[in-house]
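Posting for a labmate who doesn't have an account.
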Amino acid sequence: MSNVILKNVCKTYDNNKTVINNVNLEIKDKEFVVLVGASGCGKSTLLRMIAGLEDITSGEIYIGDQKVNNVPPKDRDIAFVFQSYALYPHMTVRENIAFGLKMRKVSKEEIDKKVKHAAEILNLGEYLDRKPKQLSGGQRQRVALGRAIVRNPKVFLMDEPLSNLDAKLRVQMRSEIKKLHEKLQTTFIYVTHDQTEALTMGDRIVLLNNGDIQQVDTPEEVYNNPKNTFVAGFIGSPQMNFIDGRDLGLDENYVYGIRPEKMNMSDGDIKIQADVEISEMLGSEKIAYFDIGEHKCCAKLPSEYSIGNKLDISINSSDLYKFDKQTGERIY
């Protein structure tokens, strides 16, 4: 079993700054869980606490059936993939992948077998005798993954591993990491600030803000049923529009949310005419930006839709999300 359990986990630094606030989370065996949130929300700190690279202030962390609060990182049976690849420039790909095994005094025959297996999984066979400087960013990231694979860990921990890659490579590596998870059938915990990565890769998403978990759910549930305005505004591109109730002719005690793609209805029961500030052509669709009351909003429209200075917007009230104005919590 390689489940990971966090019970009332807190992290407070010497200046009394709390970065992780009483987190409770259970990650199932073989699950792919993504920790997502803005910079500074505590997601990387949480990952490093699971790895043992950061001390916890209070609470308990379990990997499998073992409480690991005081277990050194090397004995936690985890593999950590860093954002920076952390490859040794003077070593070949083969030597980089094998390095951790050599430190553990694994036999040469076993090392060769494991390196060959990892290279096959990651399509690195032809690069084994090259140095990192001779590789592309995507190839270097695969070497870092290979170094983790050969350890056959209980849990893979990945801290923004794709953030140094260009957009095309990120898309390619997303699918490669997903395939890797399916092949290895091991628990993956993956940190990112990119909501697209979270939505496309995770079995479940853990959304953090200021050290607190806001929602833990499947990508579909997080997108379709956000629990508060933070979740609703963070997940989705473009992000959800928030409009004061009185600007929609609704209860002024609430804020209402509407996805941009739901603002192009022609038969909705709420009608608005907006002054378009700017529009963007994105191939198959257009984005129109405008104000409703004091709120900046946008609509996602088909590319053939003609956008002038004025835009007649029609909304179905059934597509609106209702939030408490003070707390931001969803009203069901």
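Reply:
Got it, the structure tokens are right above this. Residues 271 and 314 are 5 Å apart (CA to CA).
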